[in-house]
Amino acid sequence: MNILSYKLASRIKQSNPQETSSIEIMQYALNIILNSLLIISTSFLIGWLTGSLADTAVSLFSFAILRFFSGGKHLKTATACNIFSILLCSSIPHLSFLIKDHLLIINGLCIVIMLLFAPNPDVNAQISIRWYPWMKAISVTLVALNFFIHSPVLGLAFSAQSLTVISKQGRNFL
């Protein structure tokens, strides 16, 4: 992806050198976009091939939305993130039956984790601490909605995301 994003950024820069950002900035942004597209398209393809496209979409987007508000740890490389995200979001629809009888407990544990540790944003995110209570409230609300929706797919996606926000210091307890 790095090579592709560099080539794209270079071509964009060549076509309009005055009105574009530096190649490095465009490459960084294109890397994020291309990696996201790879995860989404591959997960959708696997979901379609396995007959679980709708649940794969629910898994992917619910994980991403909760992650946006709650933050969480990152894997060391983009490749590891891509592989893990694709495997996770493609597997959740096929494993969600495992938690069906324990969904209320899973939802409750996820809420406790969000209350104790969310948000846990990336150090590069530069999010003002004044937004943390809102991010926590939204994270808890998203998880709590599954008490009404009662979706094992949502429960498993939320529990996977909840595990990424756990930190040793628990500094965001309100």
UniProtKB/TrEMBL annotation:
Highest taxon listed in the record's lineage: Bacteria
UniProt keyword terms in alphabetical order: Cell membrane, Hydrolase, Membrane, Protease, Quorum sensing, Transmembrane, Transmembrane helix
GO-annotated biological processes: proteolysis; quorum sensing
Gene Ontology CC entries for this record: membrane
GO molecular function, one term: peptidase activity
Transmembrane region(s): 78-96, 102-119, 131-149
Protein name (record): Accessory gene regulator B
Organism (species): Paenibacillus jilunlii
Organism placement in taxonomy: Bacteria, Bacillati, Bacillota, Bacilli, Bacillales
